[in-house]
Write a structure and sequence with these properties.
- By secondary structure, this protein is an alpha/beta fold.
- The protein folds into two domains: 122 residues, Rossmann fold (3-Layer(aba) Sandwich); 261 residues, P-loop containing nucleotide triphosphate hydrolases (Rossmann fold).
- Helices cover 45% and strands 14% of the residues.
- The strands form two sheets. The protein has an eight-stranded mixed β-sheet with strand order 7-8-6-9-5-10-11-12, with helices on both faces.
- It is globular, with a radius of gyration of 23 Å.
């Protein structure tokens, strides 16, 4: 039986479960409010001092397998402290969410606190399940400031490159203001898409079979596309809860999921409306950014886009918290910035936003026009272009960890790498 447990559950149920866990042999059982947990750790803002102290001395974290609590930030927090997560839940959605993060099956809570405590004791005694060995982030959100910095172009390019080597990638259009992936890729947008996936997720009916039915295969690469809204006026269908549940299902279905989101980060609806649970126009963007385990921020290499990015990047960091952030400067050219465009942009971003690492994608109209004309990813129609090479470098250096170089048995026995052997023979 686990010795020290932290319960992130409603207090009436947590009190009864705490008593039963102590009877089962637990040494210490602490209770932490789930609303405060969701407002801090689950959304990436970092734990407070009390939760930090509890997790520092805990062996297990017990919480509900719901999108408000079980997120990528929660799993990362537990992994960093060596704390095991034991999810609770009864429905199929809880099982899919736990499986998406490689956790054990949720413990049912329909019975009494005694039954739940006994099930937790059994689950804690079982070996820790090994999470799927998928290199790189599972959920990548592509964001950029207002204007047209090239969010969709970068999102399509990242999805195509992540699919190299037979990896299954899902490409999601979660832009509630100006969806464009269906038009750019020549896909029909009248049928099922991300909105249908969100509705099915709310009904706990979004599984791998349903996602395969809803998605449109891109062809040429193992990329399945969930097209966006065919009319921007349908934005209320992309509520925060629906988007979180749908993206969690995508994370368990595909090895990597790339999400194209809108630019707006404002929460103005909370100011101008008294309805707390009313629809939010930017809910899809905020939910995708908070659910992602890697953010790709795109800006264009011109003074207007740089200024807009600098004014918004602080708000973006407040939303995503400690989630890794990769900054991509798109459409790099000398004409819009002047001599030494790379150096000027590096110094500007470092001085005003403390961004010291960034990737550049050069202006390549020929490759971009060829991709738009063919309604295909640029990697398929201009695989040797400078734009495709730059995006491939971003994936290889910022998203996917490097793979070790294969060596022969004789080289392993000699203890020398192929490069050392070549140098010795030269």
């Amino acid at each position: 039986m686990i010795a020290r447990v932290v319960l992130v559950l409603p207090r009436p149920f947590a009190l009864g479960l705490r008593e039963q866990l102590l009877l089962e042999g637990a040494a210490e059982v602490a209770i932490y409010p789930p609303d405060r947990f969701a407002a801090t750790v689950a959304f990436g803002h970092g734990p407070d001092a009390e939760l930090e102290a509890l997790l520092g001395a805990a062996d297990a974290l017990v919480l509900a397998a719901r999108v408000e609590q079980l997120t990528a930030h929660t799993v990362a927090l537990a992994d960093a402290r060596g704390v095991r997560i034991l999810p609770l839940g009864d429905d199929a959605g809880a099982a899919r969410l736990a499986a998406a993060f490689g956790l054990s099956s949720p413990v049912p809570v329909t019975g009494s606190a005694r039954d739940a405590a006994a099930a937790l004791a059994t689950a804690s005694a079982s070996p820790v399940s090994i999470r799927p060995a998928v290199p790189g982030p599972r959920l990548v959100a592509v964001w950029g400031p207002h204007g047209a910095p090239g969010r969709s172009t970068i999102a399509v390019g990242l999805a195509a490159e992540l699919a190299r080597g037979g990896r299954h990638v899902a490409l999601v259009d979660a832009d509630a203001h100006a969806p464009s992936l269906a038009m750019a890729l020549g896909l029909p947008d009248e049928g099922p898409g991300f909105a249908v996936a969100c509705r099915q997720a709310e009904l706990d009916a979004l599984d791998d079979v349903e996602l395969q039915r809803i998605a449109v295969a891109l062809g040429g690469a193992d990329v399945d596309v969930l097209t966006g809204l065919n009319r921007p006026s349908r934005w209320p269908e992309l509520s925060e809860k629906r988007v979180r549940a749908a993206l969690a299902a995508c994370a368990g279905w595909a090895e990597h999921t790339v999400v194209d989101v809108a630019a707006s980060l404002e929460r103005d609806e909370e100011i101008v409306s008294d309805v707390v649970s009313g629809p939010r126009r930017n809910a899809a963007t905020l939910a995708a950014l908070e659910s992602a385990d890697h953010i790709v921020a795109v800006l264009a290499a011109d003074p207007v886009s740089v200024a807009r990015f600098l004014r918004s990047v602080g708000e973006l960091r407040a939303i995503v918290g400690s989630t890794p952030l990769t900054v991509v400067v798109n459409r790099l050219r000398r004409g819009g910035v002047g001599i030494d465009a790379r150096g000027q942009l590096r110094r500007t971003l470092e001085r005003y936003a403390d961004i010291r690492e960034m990737w550049f994608v050069p202006e390549d109209r020929r490759a971009a026009d060829a991709a738009m004309l063919a309604a295909r990813p640029a990697a398929e129609v201009a695989g040797r272009s400078a734009m495709v090479s730059a995006i491939r470098r971003i994936v290889g250096e910022a998203l996917l960890p490097p793979t070790p170089v294969a060596t022969t048995r004789r080289e392993r026995r000699s203890g020398r790498s192929p490069h050392e052997r070549w140098a010795a023979s030269a």
